[in-house]
Automatic annotation (TrEMBL):
The lineage of its organism: Bacteria, Bacillati, Bacillota, Clostridia, Lachnospirales. It is found in: Membrane. Coiled coil: none annotated. This is Uncharacterized protein. The keyword Iron does not apply. It comes from the Bacteria. One of its GO terms (molecular function) is ABC-type transporter activity. It is a multi-pass membrane protein. Signal peptide: none annotated. Keywords: Membrane, Transmembrane, Transmembrane helix.
Length: 406
């Protein structure tokens, strides 16, 4: 395998002696990932702050006697305008539709009288709210009005009717909700990371391998350097092994940078939506770290083999890219599926499905639930397919028609 070593040295030297390639392959992606996630987190935070600062415009028709006191007592912050009974609502509803008005609240005619004269449940007065679900200000105004005002008002009216409401309470559910939560914080953090990280890792690994693999094989065919290499005393099987190992090394380095950047950037993203994001952290045991490393290496080997086969069969870089594009869609789909499978139990055979099996195994590692059998099926299924493809690449390298674009 001396020839393979020479090929590996040549490919690594080609990349690491080119400063532009180092920046574009290893530095810029990490900076972009962290910057992108930080920017999204800041945008989320700004959106929440904007909703909190916004003064809603609320119209109320037929407000019951004493309702203004409820609004004042609960310090409801809004620009409130009152409408008299029978006043036309068309203009107000048009304002809600256009986003100029946030909320319209209409009490039934004789609202309090109906409640005070209550005899049976056949006629129950209604408070109707009109709002625009496509407008954030409108949805937020409705949510705040219901929780801060109407719910409180309803409790007061019930107290007036029945006296001490505790007499109507048979039992309470979770009087202290926080004390009811039993959670493993490490698993909760792993689950949060597991929603997105497996998809991003599988996708970016493929993207990194594609950028390197197509140029290393089809690019050399186009430039004519591959033909020169084939005429050397090197065995073609050694050239194949050298190419695959060198591209795998570079892709693995690229993947490590992507993964570290995402782990560092994920709390920045979450900080925009949660004040507890600072508690998020990924923790691995030594065994879990080793399992993750082997799964990623097997996946890199498979990706490189797939891209190398497409590159060998293609005559030009453009043609190779067109062959690889459908495979990227498959990789994206396999990664995305893991985001929506929830906690459903996966059959052991599913872990042997290349790419998909790797994604759900990474997900299980993040929550600390990957079994040895699942790990074995994942690595085994991935490596077996990669070996089959490597054999096909070797056969293709031995074909003069394919390698010389005859």
């Amino acid at each position: 395998m001396k020839g393979a070593k020479e090929i590996i040295k040549k490919e690594l030297a080609r990349v690491f002696n080119d400063k532009k390639l180092i920046v574009s392959l290893f530095i810029m992606p990490g900076i972009l990932i962290i910057g992108m996630y930080y920017f999204i987190g800041q945008m989320q935070s700004a959106m929440i702050n904007d909703l909190e600062k916004h003064i809603s415009t609320v119209y109320i028709q037929n407000e019951p006697e004493g309702f203004k006191d409820i609004l004042a007592e609960n310090n409801f912050q809004a620009d409130i305008k009152y409408l008299t009974e029978g006043e036309d609502l068309t203009e107000v509803k048009e304002g809600i539709l256009n986003g100029d008005i946030d909320l319209l609240v209409v009490f039934d005619k004789g609202f309090l009288e109906s409640i005070n004269n209550y005899q049976s449940a056949e006629v129950i007065p209604e408070v109707k709210t009109y709002y625009n679900t496509s407008e954030d200000y409108s949805s937020n105004a409705r949510s705040l009005f219901v929780t801060q005002i109407l719910t409180v008002y309803q409790q007061e009216l019930l107290t007036e009717r029945f006296g001490d409401l505790n007499q109507l309470t048979v039992f309470q559910i979770d009087k202290d909700p926080e004390s009811s939560v039993i959670v493993n914080n490490d698993k909760a953090s792993g689950k949060a990371f597991g929603m997105l990280l497996p998809y991003l890792i599988t996708f970016m690994l493929f993207q990194g391998a594609m950028a390197l693999g197509v140029d290393a094989i089809t690019g050399e065919k186009e430039r004519g350097t591959m033909a020169s290499m084939l005429l050397t005393p090197l065995k073609r099987s050694e050239i194949v092994v050298g190419k695959i190992i060198s591209i795998s090394i570079l892709s693995s380095l690229s993947a490590v940078i992507y993964a570290v950047a995402m782990i560092f950037a994920m709390p920045l993203l979450m900080s925009g939506a949660s004040s507890n994001s600072g508690e998020m952290a990924l923790k691995f045991t030594l065994g879990q770290g080793a399992e993750l490393l082997l799964i990623l290496l097997a996946l890199v080997y498979l990706y490189v083999a797939i891209i190398a086969l497409a590159s060998v069969l293609a005559r030009t870089v453009k043609e190779a890219s067109s062959y690889v594009a459908p495979m990227m869609i498959v990789v994206i789909a396999a990664g995305l599926i893991t985001m929506f499978t929830g906690n459903s139990e996966k059959q052991l055979a599913m872990f042997a499905i290349p790419v998909y099996g790797s994604a759900i195994s990474i997900q299980n590692i993040l929550v600390g639930e990957l079994t040895l059998a699942q790990f074995g099926m994942t690595v085994g299924g991935t490596v077996v397919l990669a070996i089959i493809i490597t054999y096909l690449i070797t056969k293709a390298f031995n074909s003069e028609k394919i390698m010389f674009n005859a």
